[in-house]
Predict the 3D structure of the following.
Amino acid sequence: MSSFFQQGPVLDGDLLADRALADYLQLRLPVDCKSRWEPGLRQLWRRARDEMPTLAAEAERDPPEHVPYDPWGRRIDRIRVSEAWRQLEAIAAEEGVVATAFERADGAWSRVHQFLRLYLYHPSSAIASCPMAMTDGAARVIELYGDGDLRERVLPRLLSCEPESFWTAGQWMTERSGGSDVSRSETVALPEEQGYRLHGVKWFTSATTSQVAMTLARVKERGGEDEKLSLFFVELRDADGALRNIQVNRLKDKLGTRALPTAELTLAGTPARMVGERGRGVATISSILNITRLYNACCAAGYIGRGLMLATDYARKRQAFGRALIDQPLHRETLADLTVEHQAAFQLVFEAARLLGRDECGAISEDEAAVLRLLTPVVKLYTGKQAVAACSEVLEAFGGAGYVEDTGLPSLLRDAQVLSIWEGTTNVLSLDLLRAMGDGEAWQTFTGFWQARLSALGAGDESLNALADELEALARWPQALLAEGEARLQANARQLAYRIARLVAGILLAEQAR
Ligand code: MFK
Ligand code: FAD
């Protein structure tokens, strides 16, 4: 009988065992930020390493449940979530996973600090990071467009670090008629004396246990219906905890994100209030989208990093053909490729976060704002796709064990798969890149910005020359494609986005290596 039992992977390293994170803290941050943030980051890493994985596993084992009726037949539409899920949300509040960005204790660097916290929190959170993303986006929209009540009563809840008073927000955009093309939405908003009543069906609503939500609808009056959507704020429940004219039709049965409740809802006269300008709903909600998309990218980098950490630990323990896997040249190369992908994703995310922080503090230049606008869809779509590929590779690095549920590894791949779908699919974000390029002026600014960063690195070695050549070729490419027609440009938009992502990551890594 075999007496051999394989040791499984463990997360037992220090915060700085994550190379991408350690390099960034050391080489990119202002020194005072590093010394002030590191103790708190280390504390959060310990929770993510020692406390949260058990909660995440429990939340996945005990998924949300829709309870349509009470014992006496009254419609209640309660969504029961596990205690573990609640605790994961509570940890997010305690650790300021959202609030750190808005406290702005470090001025324009505050967003980077908050993204570092999200990066540590997410891989152990069973995707409780999803409601945090939407809460953050809602807080930003309220900061920018909210009325007095939203700013004074709701915003402090969204930014609370006390679990008892912390509220989360949903973001209901997708309808049966269209998730990418939200202009096909059918929900209407009927005006009443104070505010509106919403009528329609929302096809995907995640974290439906949230207290509030932002959603889109068309104002409908006697004179007719608006052509354009407006943005609305909804408070889901009344003082007794009953849903305000909202019916939960069912919870989605999903490939992954199993601890996260995602519901189909019917809004049957739900009270709502308009946020921002009437008919400018898509433009207004894009302040949320651009934040949630960067959350998505940060979480993608988090998954790649977590998978790499586990696979590396395992490779040190697992023997094959006379050596540990880590000493097999080809396996080592596989891990090295993952390491490069991780570093690239990390750099892209934190450059975008740096610019977002500057924007939120009013410190951003016009050129930087154009760069951030173009970079956001690119970073989201690239890291989302890379996370799926990387997590698949990580599972394979464990051989058959990677495919077996109770190792906890399969959920990594299942959950990564959503990152390229929600918050704008790869194609839709590639087209958003074209939207952001506009008539070409923003594209010129973008390429000029990276040209300057590349030039600042000084005389080129072979790899810098290759980056310069690629930048030159890319700068001309959209115009050349457009000369062959809009369809040709669109058909190549994904390729364009990937090339931009690789180029920018290359420049950022070259900078860091200096
Ligand atoms: C763990 C990680 C955390 C992640 C949590 C995720 C939770 C899950 C939540 C979801 O999935 S929520 C649903 C997400 N849905 C989407 O992301 C929709 C994807 N579809 C698009 O993004 C479409 O491109 C879009 C809906 C924007 C198309 O709508 P329109 O109405 O055809 O857009 P149009 O007419 O081009 O733009 C309207 C205005 O918005 C324009 O401004 P102007 O009127 O001033 O010209 C655009 O420039 C502006 N706009 C659009 N996208 C923008 C933007 N502005 C800034 N940034 C953007 N991204
Ligand atoms: P479609 O828009 O029908 O797209 C189908 C395919 O067509 C995609 O591959 C897309 O890339 C492609 N496509 C579309 N247009 C073009 C084009 N012009 N050119 C090229 N290709 C194109 N939504 C919310 O609003 N709130 C939520 O909380 C939420 N939670 C979610 C949770 C989960 C787990 C999932 C899976 C989804 C969630 N969604 C949520 C919905 C998600 O945002 C949408 O599914 C997504 O935006 C795509 O919309 P769709 O499903 O209608 O696909």
Summary: The longest helix spans residues 281-317. DSSP finds 16 helices and twelve strands in the chain.
